[in-house]
Specification:
The complex is a heterodimer of chains A (about 180) and B (about 400). With about 180 residues, chain A is an alpha/beta fold. Chain A is built from five helices and six strands. Chain B has two domains: about 240 residues, Thiamin diphosphate (ThDP)-binding fold, Pyr/PP domains (Rossmann fold); about 130 residues, Rossmann fold. Chain B is built from twelve helices and 15 strands. Chain B is globular. Classes of the chains: A alpha/beta (about 180), B alpha/beta (about 400).
Chain lengths: ~180, ~400
């Protein structure tokens, strides 16, 4: 089972990312859960969302304390929140950052890192610094949970004919340029 | 079989209500139930559901409107949680006393104070005696299935009582997970249109819910008691028909783990699934442990419960509500009262866990088991996971 914890700030779309990932996984025939951290929702405050993906039925209704993958939408969170808390020894941190994998790995002592400048990609393709769909591309590249194309249908469904293709392009771009470690 | 789709469980419940082809939805939005009635209001507005949506100014009025519409012969639905359910309180008794087959989702949430929007069973446990059939769902699929089945149970002329389907707030209502939807034609075949026993109709005037003088009140209450006791058989029949029609079997009391295990967890609601993982892990390491999940809470399925626990030495009864001042939580009180007459009584550990949204994890269940084996759980009850500095 993959257990993924998403970190963002209220309004950045971490909860939407979680939802899209779970819906896409379910559409491929897998089992999945996605849920927010159910706190008071405040724009700009640190928020978490959770995703589980498995090939069999998931019998667990608790938050994710020991994630396999952590995804960080906002680089400024690294100074505020220990995003790698509870991360499994071989876990992966997928992070929106302009820094290199090596630099982040050394600084934070993370076991595995996949950094991508998602803000740049989002601004170039979507014209807004909203990185939630872009970061899914990086997550999928680093983890192999799904293929990038598995996301297309749910993204088009969620964002419609105008913004949908742009969001999928941003995701695909991140998938293309991200590397693990 | 169609393919499962991933969606928020609240939306799956709204789909179930739409497919049940209700005539009236009267509801006041309250977290964590809001997404259900919000979605239903969209269905009514865009014509997907041919029904009246009655936006009311409080839950007291929501349930009052439900009483009126059900009495007029309309298939009627509402949803609420916590303080909203409490505000309905007096009308809940009127709905059952007038034998009106309203269906309600309770998105279980803790009662204030302090204000909590998060899950526990305090809301429905304060309404144990309202005379409604009360069912608990453990996951999104069950929430969808049981919502449709609830209408069939409620409207059966041997029952004619309101039914509430309990769904853990947030833990289920806000979860995205796979749900299999059933084809509309199959639902129509399973759930025929509502045929009320009598209706408010100016051409054939009747009085409903008049004064019950001392000469008739007790008879009326006894009839309600007989109706809810009798509903147990109907619930079992409807669950069995559901299994035949759609392939998913439901029982009044569900079991899991090793048959005739020495130690049994007793759970209700979504905790059941997390417990299953703990039970599986413990069984794999050689422990004699199983699980009993109460699906039908009212009427309490006495025989089925006794059968499910036969031979067990210990029960770890989980309560997601406090019953202040009497040592045990509501579920444990129920079970202890039931076992008093039995020749063989297992030892009972009552654990109050997960109040106000506190996470109860696989590790917690394993620790409860371990403590029960070492006799470290309080013989009365343990309020689980309270910080020692509190």
């Amino acid at each position: 089972m993959w257990e993924i914890r998403l970190h963002g700030r209220g309004g950045q779309g971490a909860v939407t990312s979680a939802e899209l990932l779970a819906r896409a996984a379910i559409a491929t025939g897998k089992f999945a859960q996605a849920f927010p951290s159910f706190g008071p929702e405040r724009r700009g405050a640190p928020v978490q969302a959770f995703v589980r993906v498995d090939d069999k039925r998931i019998l667990k209704r608790e938050k994710i304390y020991e994630p396999d993958v952590v995804m960080v939408l906002d680089p400024t969170l690294l100074d505020v929140v220990n995003v790698a808390e509870g991360l499994k020894p071989e876990g992966i941190v997928v992070v929106n950052s302009s820094k290199s994998n090596q630099e982040l790995k050394e600084k934070h002592k993370w076991p595995n890192v996949a950094a991508v400048n998602a803000t740049r990609i989002a601004v170039d393709i979507l014209s807004v610094p909203i990185t939630n769909t872009t970061m899914i591309g990086a997550l999928l590249k680093a983890s192999g949970i799904l293929r990038a194309e598995d996301m297309e249908e749910v993204i088009l469904d969620r964002f419609g004919s105008k913004l949908g293709p742009k969001n999928f392009n941003a995701l695909s771009k991140a998938f293309e340029v991200t590397s693990l470690n | 079989m169609t393919k499962a789709i991933g969606l928020e469980v609240s939306l799956a419940i709204a789909e179930a209500v739409k497919q049940a082809n209700v005539d009236i939805v009267a509801a006041y939005p309250i977290t964590p139930q809001t997404h259900i009635v919000e979605e239903l209001s969209v269905y009514v507005a865009n014509g997907e559901l041919d029904a009246e949506y009655v936006p009311v100014e409080s839950e007291h009025t929501a349930m009052s409107a439900c009483v009126g519409s059900s009495a007029a012969g309309a298939r009627t639905y509402t949803a609420t949680a916590a303080q909203g359910l409490a505000l309905m309180h007096e009308i809940l008794y009127i709905a059952s006393g007038m034998r009106l087959p309203i269906v309600m989702t309770v998105a279980n949430r803790a009662l204030s104070a302090p204000i909590s929007i998060w899950n526990d069973h305090g809301d429905i446990m304060s309404e144990r005696d309202i005379g409604w059939v009360q069912i608990f769902a453990e996951n999104g699929q069950e929430a969808y299935d049981l919502t449709i089945a609830a209408f069939k149970i409620a409207e059966d002329h041997r029952v004619l009582l309101p039914v509430c389907v309990n769904v853990d707030g947030f833990i289920l209502t806000h979860m995205i997970e796979p749900v299999l939807f059933i084809d509309q034609k199959k639902i129509d075949a399973f759930l025929p249109p509502f045929k009320p026993a009598m209706t408010l109709n100016p051409d054939k005037p009747v009085t409903m819910g008049p004064v019950g003088v001392p000469e008739v009140y007790m008879e009326s209450r006894k009839q309600c008691e007989e109706a809810i006791m009798g509903s147990r058989q109907v619930v079992a029949e409807v669950f069995s028909q559901w299994g035949q029609s759609f392939g998913r079997d439901y029982k009044l009391i569900e079991t899991n783990g090793q048959p005739r295990a020495k130690v049994l967890f007793v759970t209700m609601g979504s905790q059941g699934e997390t417990t299953m993982t703990a039970v599986q892990d413990l069984s794999e390491s050689g422990e004699s442990v199983g699980q009993v999940r109460i699906r039908l809470w009212r009427p309490f399925p006495r025989e089925e419960f006794l059968e499910a626990i036969a031979g067990a030495e210990e029960l770890i009864v989980i309560d997601r509500a406090l019953s202040p001042g009497v040592y045990n939580g509501p579920v444990a009180q129920e079970i202890k009262a039931l076992l008093y007459e039995q020749p063989q009584k297992p030892k009972i550990h009552n654990v109050i866990a997960g109040l106000g949204g506190r996470d109860v994890t696989v590790k917690d269940f394993k620790k409860m088991y371990e403590m029960s084996r070492k006799n470290e759980l309080d013989p009365n009850y343990t309020i689980w996971g309270v910080r020692s500095d509190a």
